[in-house]
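## Example record

The block below lists the input lines for one assembly entry, exactly as stored, with component labels intact.
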Amino acid sequence: MASPIEQFQIKPIIPAINFTNSSLFMVGAVALIVGGFMLATRKRALVPGRGQSTAEILHDFVAGTLTDAAGKEGMRFFPLVFSLFMFVFTANMLGMIPGFFTVTSHIIVTFALAILVIGTVVAYGLVKHGTHFFGLFVPSGVPSWLLPFIVVIEVISFLSRPVSLSLRLFANMLAGHIALKVFGGFVVALLGAGGALTILAPLPLIMAVALMALEFLVAALQAYVFTVLTCIYLNDALHPGH
Amino acid sequence: MDPVAFKFLGAGLACIGMGLAAMGVGNIFGNFLSGALRNPSAADSQFARAFIGAALAEGLGIFCLVVALVLLFT
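Predicted structure tokens for the full assembly:
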């Protein structure tokens, strides 16, 4: 029987240019997003149709999340945040189709996305606010004897942000897909065991169906959480100092 | 005892932290729900905040998962 982590194996498709199945699904996700939005916004009707409504809902949803967390000035980061949300969401959802590769179940992909976010925060914060950006690490209203410890803790928590941002998405997708595969494996094992055990085979199948529904929730939720946290971190770059 | 056995023991112990993170996440959503039932009109505006808290609490549990994975596969 196949091992539960075999599904995460990267296989080269065109070895000459290092084009792997991971690259294929990344390109697929981007093509799906771009193609879908071009198709949806082609007519630009005053009264939107089905496709245009979907595009508008997605736009308003991400714009609302961004303005809630980072205020009106946050909208200058809208292209970044919207691209991140759509990419993570589409990649997660593509991975839910059985047999498809989940791009976000590899830590290097999610870490690259997280470093992009934190890099934007640091670069924008330093360019816009200069040294005032470091006020982020010095909360106001703290007793002076406590301040050195608080600064150290704030610096550590800032440095752990890209790690936790990437690990959260990666570990959720990895653990979910392994759990699905393990329950799928139970069905095969029980069917193969023969005799009275064969009758029990539908039980893990029901569990796998329930887990599948949970995984769809997790896939959408983690894309949302990634976006919300991105917005909060961008807010730090726009308004440093507590 | 075999040193490899201690690695597996450590991986198992690291998983306790994931259970503790589960308690934290449950605490957040339980309190959110009890607050939301008392004042349903304010619930929608605090929905994102509940998820941020849950995501941060969950992140610490995921660190435990990573410790377990590192112990198992290195």
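Residues 6-238 of chain A form one domain. The first strand of chain A starts at residue 12 and ends at 14.
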